[in-house]
Amino acid sequence: MLYKRNEYFRYTFDEPCEATFRLIKDASESSPEEISKKGKCTIIDISPHGIKMYSELFISIEKLNHVELQVTLDETPISLIGEFVWSHRKISGYEYGIRFMDDEKRESLIINELKNRRKKEIERKK
């Protein structure tokens, strides 16, 4: 595994987090054009710069490389726009690596939501 020195952290969920996604035409637009209906996925891990998701659906990432994810890590729903970087076939579906577009506000929201989620997980274990 390649070590990314500039990566803050990568949070791996004990139980994958439910989310939805839709394929979009161009992630650089202010209101991206939808080219698919919403699909269900699970988030395996997340960092402020990317995400690993699992879906039963096959996505041809060479042709359809932009995606919008809707996820609630703790309490606030977050819309994340990114591009597919890699995909791996699994027994009953596919894992995808997605790199987010640079956005400091979104990065800090992800970090804060994960901190709050982790605090609640620790409290439940006590």
UniProtKB/TrEMBL annotation:
One of its GO terms (molecular function) is cyclic-di-GMP binding. Coiled coil: none annotated. Residues 29-107 form the PilZ domain. Transmembrane segments: none annotated. InterPro entries: PilZ_domain. This is PilZ domain-containing protein. It comes from Psychrobacillus glaciei.
